[in-house]
Amino acid sequence: MKKENLKAIFFDFDDTLQSRKGAYRLYCESFLTKYFPDIDEEERLRKLDEMEEYVDGGYKDREVYFPEIIDLWKWDNHPPMQELYDSFNYDFGKYIVLLDGAIDVLNKIKEKGYILGCITNGVSSLQNIKLDTAGIRDMFDVVVVSGDIGIYKPDRRIFDEAIRRAGVKNEEAMFVGDHPVNDIEGALSADMQVIRMNYGDFKGKGLGKAGVTAEIESITELLKYI
């Protein structure tokens, strides 16, 4: 990678700028307080663990996830399914656990004069609420949420659209993300410079892909490569 050719840096959000597991744990605690206020501590902890286990790192559809939870818990008096879907789509995003150093890294990138962007997969309402709750939306020059445009990583078109909005060439843009397929293979297919965030549910998986500039385990390590 040649720094002089780099003009824009794009980030994934979950498990790149924030701990998705940490945020989801907070959401689950709120969920159980609302729907199971009288359970004892042992059952509460068991349900917390089960909510985390069954969500499959956030990659399971709500329409599959909640019926599984209902069946597991034998939750016969559960609220309407749409209420549960809405809880995930609108309430989960209110809980944010940014990684240590994330804000400082974004500020330093802005100070260096790079165009700053975010490309994130997910339901429009959920991902946009996350960015607003985190208080970092205004730091980005470009934000592309898959649910807003109907194109999802690893489809290179979502990367191409973000790059088009940034007004740079593909080879002048870098992408930083954690998912070995959605983020890394997707960005590589779009001819971007790529940094792998080796963190979260995919830590240690799919490493060493050809074309990746570096693999980092802390977001602050990114500054060595820009």
Q: Catalogue the unreliable spans.
A: none
Element string (H = helix, E = strand): EHHHHHEHEHHEHEE
Can you count the beta strands?
6
Overall geometric form: elongated
Q: Classify the fold: give the CATH topology of the largest domain.
A: Rossmann fold
Termini distance?
9 Å
How large is the radius of gyration?
A: 18 Å
CATH homology superfamily name of the largest domain = HAD superfamily/HAD-like
Question: What percent strand?
Answer: 5-15%
Main sheet properties: 6 strands, parallel
Mean of all residue-level pLDDT scores: 96
Indicate the CATH architecture of the largest domain. 3-Layer(aba) Sandwich
Supply the number of helical segments.
9
Structural class: alpha/beta
Domains (count): 2
Helical content (DSSP H or I, runs of 4+): 40-55%
CATH class of the largest domain: Alpha Beta
Strand order of the largest sheet: 3-2-1-4-5-6
Structure description:
The protein is 44% helix and 13% strand. The protein folds into two domains: 3-19 and 98-225, HAD superfamily/HAD-like (Rossmann fold), CATH 3.40.50; 21-94. 34% of the residues are buried. The chain is elongated. Helix 2 (41-54) runs antiparallel to helix 3 (62-73) and helix 3 packs across helix 4 (81-91). The N and C termini lie close together (9 Å). The mean pLDDT is 96. The chain has a six-stranded parallel β-sheet, sandwiched between helices. The protein is built from nine helices and six strands. The longest helix has 16 residues, at 20-35. Strand 4 (173-177), helix 9 (180-189) and strand 5 (193-197) form a beta-alpha-beta unit. By secondary structure, the protein is α/β, with parallel strands linked by helices.
